[in-house]
Amino acid sequence: MKGHYWVYIDAATAAAAAATHIAERLDEAVRDRGHASFAISGGNSPKQLFRELIKTGVDWTHVRLFWVDERAVPPGHEQSNYSMALEHLVAPAGIPEANVTRMEGELAPAEAASRYERALRATFPGAAIPVFDVIHLGMGPDGHTASLFPGEPLIQERQKLVAAVHVEKLNADRITLLPVVLQLARCVIVFAPGGDKAPVLKQVFEGPRDPLKLPVQLLDVRTAETTWFLDEDAAEHMSPQQ
Ligand code: 6PG
Fold first, then answer.
1. How far apart, in whole angstroms, are the C-alpha atoms of residue 88 and residue 133?
2. CA nearest ligand 1 atom 2, residue
3. Were both Cys, which of 2, 23, 60, 109 would link to 95 (CB 3.0–4.6 Å)?
4. What was the pLDDT predicted at 188?
5. Contacts of 76 (CB under 8 A, 6+ apart)
6. 166-203 per-position pLDDT tens digit
7. Using CA positions, which residue lies closest to atom 13 of ligand 1?
8. If you measure from the C-alpha of residue 44 to the centroid of ligand 1, how many angstroms do you get, rounded to a whole number?
9. Residue 137 contacts by C-beta under 8 Å, 6 or more apart in sequence?
10. Which ligand 1 atom sits nearest the alpha carbon of residue 196?
């Protein structure tokens, strides 16, 4: 598996390092292009990352914020990735509302997905596939990333940017960015702390490539930067990187 991983003593230290790295990439993009596009993931570990990101002093007025995925729930729901980010990043960092393009989890998933695809195409006019400056991903203990879970046929999708998916094992609907967007971003940061991820991380980096089984391996075809931030618990079984 391509991509470099850094291992830190604990999740807090990994979060601080990942936040600094993201801030550097966002500042670079603003310097080079006048603005930066940043897509964030949901789940639990981002709360710690966002707390560190706020401390980095990024000038958010030039950063356009997007979501990698969303649960099919309205804002305010405990499962809402938008509400989690609003509480832990958007509000405390004072990110202007005009810079925030959320996935509308309250709508029918297919409609939310097509509206988000239109919003992306409007934000990246003329681009067949939007090129984000920074995409923040997580990874589940089963190797899923975004809302692309093992066995998801859309892992092989090559045209569409966004889709609604039904996650069998959670019996839940989600809206998610699709591989072509994740594969083309200028920088992908994977923040994946926690011992529950150790067994699958070894397979992801050292096992055979099979994104249908281990969806995060879809990142392997990337030519631009992919950097992983892990803690020692997550990297427990990993061989030192060459
Ligand atoms: C989501 C995420 C999902 C997440 C992983 C890891 O909406 O749940 O986008 O892909 O990144 O489940 O979650 P943790 O980082 O909290 O372990």
1. 21
2. 42
3. 60
4. 98
5. 83
6. 999 999 999 999 999 999 999 999 999 999 999 999 99
7. 43
8. 7
9. 41, 68, 145, 146, 182, 188, 189, 190, 191, 216, 219
10. 17
What are the respective helix, strand and coil percentages of the chain, to the nearest 5? Answer: 40, 20, 40
**Cα–Cα–Cα angle for 75, 64, 192, nearest 5°?**
70
How far is ligand 1, taken at its centre, from the CA of residue 49, in Å?
A: 13
Give the SS3 label for residue 32: helix
The residue whose CA has the least distance to atom 10 of ligand 1 is 146
**Which residues form the pocket of ligand 1, taking CB atoms under 6 Å from any ligand atom?**
41-45, 68-69, 81, 138-140, 144-146
- Tokens 């490539």, residue? 209
- Confidence band (pLDDT; 50, 70, 90) for 165? very high
pTM: 0.97
Per-residue model confidence as pLDDT tens digits over 106-151: 999 999 999 999 999 999 999 999 999 999 999 999 999 999 999 9
How many Cβ atoms sit within 10 Å of the Cβ of residue 131? 13
Q: Which residues on adjacent β-strands are paired with residue 176?
A: 69, 163
Best of 44, 88, 162, 167 for a ligand 1 pocket test (most atoms within 8 Å of beta carbon): 44
Whether residue 240 has pLDDT greater than 90: no
Q: Report which ligand 1 atom has the smallest distance to the Cα of 144.
A: 10
